[in-house]
Amino acid sequence: MMRITNGIMMNNCLNNINKNKLQMDKIYTQIESQKLFQKPSEDPIAAIRSLRLRSTYTEIEQYLEKNVEDAEAWMKITEAAMESLKTTVGGEEQSDGIVSYLNQGISEYQTVSEREKILSTLKAYRDAIYQVGNEDNAGRTIFTGYRTDTTLTFMEDVSDRYKITENLTLESFRNIKKVVDTHAGTGNYAETDIVNADLHAVMLGYDGLDATLSDGTAMTLTSTTNTTLNGHAVTVRSLQANGNSVYTNIGDNDVIFIPETGELLFGDGIYNDIDKNDMFSITYEKTGFRAGELKPEHYFYCEKTTTTQSPTGPVSQTTVYGRKKEINGVEYKYIEDQDIKYNINFNQNIKINVLAKDILPPTLGRDLDIIISSVEAAVDAHKKQESLEEQIEKAEAEGDTATAQQLKYQLKAAEMETAYAEDNLTKSFKKGLTLYQGHFSEITTQLADIGSRRTRLELNKTRLESQLLTVKELKSVNEDTNLEQAAVEYNNMQDVYDASLKVAVQVVQKSLLEFI
Q1: Which span out of 178-192, 353-367, 390-404, 417-431 was modeled with the highest average pLDDT?
Q2: Residue 312: what pLDDT?
């Protein structure tokens, strides 16, 4: 048996006192720092758990305070812009807007002054319709896909040249009627000079186009689905050179390109050969854009050529937007969808943007151009008729019977032109009403879509807030000091320490004689 000496007892006593002091210091540190451990070695399992909880907490904070907040702001601004566009386009329940004006135009606005009033209103809508597309969120344009650093429209006139490939389908066609005065101001104006042309027209994205391609190649159609369309020649007819006669004498297999108006006219034969599933395209060029016109790179495959001056002369730089791929042996040019997605929760993302091509397509403005042209034609026809009536009245007042008779002969032609123009205008209003109700419906659909995405975002936000509280509580339980419990433990350790000191005093007080 081991002999216990007084020295051993004293050493054990001092060691136990030190252990009590260490435990008191640990509890004291926990109270002061309000943390259960200061180093991972004190509680490795709790330390690992703490790292995981802290990482989860940081991620949830990132989702909640950064991603969700930014996504919510972006979608709110997008919704507000789309609501503004919805009001501009108008619907049956709207008191104003394009649809409302077209609806009224069918039965109202009969006089020239009334027509001129609606004409100025529609032109104002035409000028303003795409301005909503320049809305931004913290300096990032919301409808331009990945190109958030650029506006949807040109903010000032530019001289850049774009080579644009526009993809078309059967839905791109607008069957319109256009009254044509074939006598073009020469000779007598007779009823036989008046033609009301039926046209299968595609309104390309722009007017004021170049008559030829800069590389000298002939303008042709391309199709991945229709062999008749693929490689079909396109004939250029200048409105400036030929007047309204460009709309007449269109052969069955003709495809006519009018650069001034950006119209593509198809003969009956080739139009009837196009199926609803067919895709075809045309490549054209436009040099110079007005402020307010759409930037082609947001809608079409295109090549932009910018010319700048350098000390050695003009320098041209070409930038390509879009992609190419081969379909059925034919090169197909297109732009990809540019969906901006945010991570809003663990393994969850959400699309936050709406693309301009879906909510602000070129047809939104070009369909209005057709209606504006019809109104202008009706106004001009009425003015021509009124002018002839005034001239007849003046000739009869002066007794110039021969002139009056000749003018009456021309008046019949003017009345025919007016009748055609009026009929075309009514049909244009009706077709336009259908088209813009369709545009309105598409806007409403897109609004419903972004509304459902916002609802999903709100649900995730609520879930994240709940998760954040849960993780915060778990994190606190794992590493934060329970002050009440620690205070009780500290008092208990204080009592133990005091008791050990009293016992130690008794051991130390013993003299050597007491051990003899």
Answers
A1: 353-367
A2: 76
Would strands 235-236 and 255-258 be described as parallel, antiparallel, or unpaired?
Answer: parallel
Region 71-82: mean pLDDT is 94
- Report the half-sphere exposure of 143 (CA within 13 A, side-chain side): 27
Task: Report residue 473's pLDDT band, with 50, 70 and 90 as the boundaries.
Answer: confident
Which residues contact residue 155 at a Cβ distance below 8 angstroms, ignoring those fewer than 6 apart?
134, 291
pTM above 0.85, yes or no: no
pLDDT digits (tens, 9 = 90+) for 382-428: 888 899 899 999 988 888 888 888 888 888 988 999 999 989 998 99
Cβ within 8 Å of residue 270, ≥6 positions away: 228, 229, 232, 252, 253, 254, 255
CB of 210 within 8 A of CB of 286?
Answer: yes
Helix ranges (DSSP H) in 171-303: 239-242, 268-272
- Asked if residue 159 lies in contact with residue 287, where contact means CB atoms within 8 angstroms, the answer is yes
CB 253 within 8 A of CB 229: no
The first and second tokens of residue 406, run together, are 């000749």
Quick one: which of 229, 235, 173 has its CA closest to 203? 173
| 167 neighbors 158 (Cβ within 8 angstroms) | no
User: With the C-alpha atoms ordered 414, 121, 131, 174, is the resulting torsion angle positive or negative?
Assistant: negative
CB atoms within 10 A of CB 80: 12
Give the integer Cα–Cα distance in Å for 177 and 95.
29
Res. 162 pLDDT band, cuts 50 70 90: very high
> Around 356, how many Cα atoms within 13 Å sit in the side-chain half-sphere?
31
Q: Considering just the CA atoms, what is the radius of gyration of the chain in Å?
A: 41
> CA 390, 396, 398 angle in degrees (round to 5)?
105
First-last CA distance in the chain: 20
At residue 181's C-alpha, the angle toward residues 180 and 183, to 5°, is 145
Give dist(CA 90, CA 102) in Å, integer: 10
Strands 140-141 and 136-137: antiparallel
Q: Answer whether 83's CB lies under 8 Å from 447's CB.
A: yes
